[in-house]
Design goal:
Among the domains are: 2-160 and 242-255, Rossmann fold; 305-494, Nucleotidyltransferase, domain 5. 50% of the residues lie in helices and 12% in strands. The strands form 6 sheets. The chain has a 6-stranded mixed β-sheet with strand order 3-2-1-4-5-6. The longest helix has 37 residues, at 807-843. It is globular. Keywords: DNA damage, DNA repair, DNA replication, DNA-binding, DNA-directed DNA polymerase, Exonuclease, Hydrolase, Nuclease, Nucleotidyltransferase, Transferase. Residues 304-492 form the 3'-5' exonuclease domain.
Length: 902
């Protein structure tokens, strides 16, 4: 939850005095209303939350007047031009589809405090849209402020600049200062600077008053005033302290953001003659067709500018500031963001208006000299940190890593078109820029080959002539901008806004930091492991050749096929189109199931060969000068929302094999540090119990029972006490197999029994847990009717082949549909934990660093003396990352290497 709370009452006065007088045709003054509508339109576009409400004062008299009668008694009446606008602004909020909240006897500030507290208690965050100094006391982790007139955030630094103290001490300072406008008395003669000094020295108001009274404070007029007006200070503190226990007129969950009704909003804007706002929101008088995507921009592609002077760069940056947004695309000499050097940056500020800033190209004789990066960095760095300009990327993580390595300190705020698309269409199609341009803009992007050539003649991008490089790069930025304008509004329509804003987008800096940090490997141990694997492969190879009756190259599929199906005459062989025998894993597995030993040994040899090449040998070359390997996490690939890992793939290490454990031991902690592993226990089974509402399983999880023993007891009718390992293992295979829609044949193969016996196990399982079959059938029907299924947290997982004419493909899609809410739900939970964990570590004063995510496991690197505290905090954050109807359990381990910690 990201709850945006608009201080409606505070904004009315600021807008009225800041915006020149305006009247509509009937003479009613509307300058404050116009400012409010402008602010809301911008807010809903650029500072989106999952929940939003506008908070107003219900009246001038509140409980504070009973506490202290002079409170706000001298405030002047509102100007007559403003009075009609109070009701109009409430009407405007309703026209935008926003809750308009007020409560008798309470001030708007108290309601804001109470709603911010409720958001935090719900595991979310709050953004307060106001510049009111009284609200600054609420700023803390998870609660921020945004100045609606300047469109800039207000955080601890701004509070310190204003009050000289941190937000948690603002009340203490205000109690001493008082407030002449609101008749808050304070202590006579003490201003902001003096108050900050006193609170900085003594800590609290009471400590200040006690020091003055006891004589511990230096004698003088200030001490005398503190003694004389101590009661004034205490009543002042009560008056300025916001009450976060105020009743909530509407439950916080009811404040979920909804799109306005176009016809209603259009009518309101017409009545008040706000043509510019209506035009900017692209409103028509016709009812809104929610499912329809906006039309692609008509501006032509091409005619882009090559930026080779500071004047041209400054002009483009100024255009970005005027627009309030800019699409950015970096170009490098290596597609791996952790190795490539920055060659240039493309910027787009409007459809068809884009330019490329070459910075590291090898120039030809005809090329204009390019800008030097140190010169461009000042202007571009200021743009990237400008909070009033939204930076739009496709694959922001890649771009941020390149920019970070090039010396750009920060890029904020930002949007990511790839993740905007992925949040609403995971599994429906690919989310690369080329696919999205083709699908949504009916536009074919220039290929890299079209500017760099192909084959032996291919140029590196650094050597591509600037004209071609600019056309290629600027078009990428232009397409990114157009896709953003089209796809961002659909997040709300497709109910994917919260998922994008609170999970996917917030994960970008977390993964960026993880990838840049990397994980250390023991290169000497990797070399030793390579020798071990090679020795074992040689032993297995000798064994294979003995079983085959002759020597041959085990690594040659052609020779292997001839040995198996010609010399040995084994059954089931099939030739491919080229005439060679097929020897892939499915063929070998089929032979191994028939008890043919040579097939099993070849599979063992291939497994070791793959592990040797993929990990033992490859990781040595992939480690940097510090011995760290930097994997790349793919954020928009898996249909279920899972992250995947490439270059190298660290998520594919076998989990339950001796070799997998051996590989994990080569991942080590830095000197003086330990690795901390935190792993969700049986999370998909827990989600199954939750989504299928299986009372027996929920009860078992709540009691902390052995779920596999419980299942064995329920299905096979044997007591849990003294249960043999084989029976428990059968139940475990069923439990996990059901999640993946396993067939009787598949289960039988796992358990080493016939398909008939396996089917009897499955039938007994469904008889004991009929809720599971009901869930499976309902989920398949949901996929057939909608084309997608939902995780418990609202992620859409598309299942494109659910109606395929081919039975095999349709059955596979049905298994996908059954599993997606469980695997996707687990992905949602661990992603939420990853977003929260770095902040929690920082708040706790711990320097533990998140370095890896492998499905249900997180791996951290922590100083030795912090490892236990980091493990406990990781467990706490992960177990509290989401609320489902069964407890989430996390197992932790600490070790000098991943194998010992896992």
């Amino acid at each position: 939850m990201r709850l945006v709370l608009v201080d409606g009452s505070g904004f009315i006065f600021r807008a009225f005095h800041a915006i020149p007088d305006m009247t509509r045709p009937d003479g009613v003054h509307v300058n404050a209303v116009f400012g409010f509508c402008n602010m809301i339109a911008r807010l809903m576009k650029e500072h989106t939350g999952s929940h939003l409400a506008v908070i107003f004062d219900a009246g001038r008299m509140t409980f504070r007047n009973r506490m202290y009668e002079p409170y706000k008694a001298h405030r002047p009446e509102a100007p007559p031009e403003l009075v009609p606008q109070f009701a109009l602004i409430r009407e405007a909020a309703r026209a935008f589809g926003l809750p308009s909240i007020e409560l008798d006897d309470w001030e708007a500030d108290d309601l804001i405090a109470a709603y911010a507290k409720a958001a935090l208690q719900a595991g979310g965050e709050a953004v307060i849209v106001s510049s009111d100094k009284d609200l600054m006391q609420l700023i803390r982790p998870g609660v921020t402020m945004l100045d609606p007139m300047k469109n800039v955030p207000i955080g601890e630094a701004e509070v310190a600049a204003k009050f000289g103290v941190t937000p948690d001490k603002v009340i203490e300072v205000q109690a001493l200062i008082g407030d002449a406008v609101d008749n808050v008395p304070g202590v006579r003669g003490i201003g902001p600077k003096g108050a900050a000094e006193l609170i900085g020295q003594y800590g609290t108001l009471e400590a200040v008053l006690e020091a003055a009274k006891s004589g511990a404070m230096k004698p003088g007029k200030r001490r005398d005033m503190l003694v004389e007006f101590a009661d004034n200070a205490r009543i002042s503190k009560e008056l300025v302290k916001l009450r976060d226990d105020a009743p909530l007129p509407e439950p916080v969950e009811d404040l979920a953001l909804r799109h306005w009704d176009d016809a209603v909003l259009s009518a309101f804007l017409d009545t008040n003659n706000f043509k510019s706002i209506k035009q900017r929101l692209a409103l028509s008088d016709a009812p809104r067709a929610e499912a329809a995507a906006p039309k692609a921009e008509a501006a032509a592609f091409g005619g882009y500018e090559t930026i080779t002077s500071m004047a041209a760069l400054t002009a483009l940056i100024e255009a970005a500031r005027q627009a309030g947004f800019v699409a950015v695309d970096v170009q490098t000499d290596d597609r791996n963001s952790l190795h490539g050097n920055l060659l240039g940056i493309a910027l787009a500020v409007a459809p068809g208006r884009a330019g490329y800033v070459p910075l590291g190209h090898n120039l030809g004789l005809e090329d204009t000299p390019q800008l030097l990066w140190p010169d461009a960095l000042g202007a571009l760095g200021a743009l990237f940190t400008d909070v009033a300009v939204l930076k739009i990327f496709h694959d922001a993580k890649y771009n941020l890593e390149v920019l970070t390595r090039a010396g750009v300190a920060q890029v904020a705020p930002l949007d990511d078109v790839m993740l905007i698309s992925y949040a609403q269409d995971a599994g429906n199609f690919s989310h690369d820029r080329e696919t999205l341009a083709r699908k949504h803009l009916a536009h074919e992007l220039k290929s890299f080959d079209s500017v760099a050539g192909s084959g032996r003649a291919r140029l590196s991008f650094a050597n591509v002539p600037l004209a071609g490089a600019s056309a290629f790069a600027a078009e990428a930025a232009d397409v990114t901008l157009r896709l953003w304008a089209m796809l961002k509004p659909l997040l709300r329509v497709n109910k994917s806004l919260a998922l994008y804003e609170l999970v996917e987008k917030k994960l970008i800096p977390v993964l960026t930091a993880m990838e840049l940090h990397g994980v250390m490997v023991d290169r000497a141990d990797l070399r030793a492991m390579s020798v071990e694997f090679e020795g074992r492969m040689a032993e297995i190879e000798t064994d294979i050749q003995r079983l085959a009756g002759q020597e041959f190259n085990v690594g040659s599929p052609k020779q292997l096929g001839e040995i198996l199906f010609e010399r040995m005459g084994l059954p089931g062989g099939k030739r491919g189109k080229a005439g060679a025998w097929g020897t892939d894993s499915s063929v070998l597995e089929g032979l191994a199931e028939q008890g043919i030993e040579v097939a099993q040994r070849v599979m063992d040899w291939r497994q070791l060969a793959k592990l040797k090449s993929t990990y033992a040998d490859a990781l040595i070359g992939q480690a940097d000068e510090n011995g760290r390997v930097h994997t790349s996490f793919q954020m928009a690939v898996a249909a279920t929302g899972r992250l995947s890992s490439t270059d190298p793939n660290l998520q594919n290490i076998p989990i339950r094999t001796v070799e997998g454990a051996r590989i994990r031991k080569t991942f080590i902690a830095a000197p003086g540090c330990s690795l901390v592993s935190a792993d969700y226990s049986q999370i998909e089974l827990r989600l199954l119990a939750h989504v299928a509402d299986i009372a027996a399983l929920k009860e078992s999880f709540a009691r902390g029972e052995d779920i596999h023993a419980r299942t064995a007891s329920e299905v096979f009718g044997v007591p849990m006490a003294g249960m043999d390992a084989a029976t428990r293992r059968r139940a475990k295979a069923i439990n996990f197999g059901i999640i993946y829609g396993i067939s009787a044949f598949g289960l039988g193969r796992q358990l080493g029994v016939g398909a008939g016996e396996a089917k009897a196990y499955i039938d007994a399982y469904f008889k004991r847990y009929p809720e599971i079959r009901a869930y499976m059938e309902a989920t398949k029907e949901e996929a057939r009717s909608q084309g997608y299924v939902l995780t418990p947290f609202g992620r859409r997982c598309w299942v494109p082949r659910i109606k395929d004419k081919m039975p095999q493909l349709r059955a596979y899609a049905e298994r996908q549909a059954i599993n997606a809410p469980l695997q996707g739900g687990a992905a949602d939970i661990i992603k939420q934990a990853m977003v929260k964990l770095p902040k929690a570590m920082a708040r706790a004063g711990l320097s533990a660093t998140l370095i890896l995510q492998v499905h249900d496991e997180l791996l951290l690197e922590a100083p030795d003396d912090e490892a236990r505290a980091a493990a406990e905090l990781a467990r706490e954050v992960m177990q509290g990352a989401a609320e489902i109807s069964v407890p989430l359990t996390v197992e932790t381990g600490i070790g000098k290497n991943w194998g010992d910690a896992h």
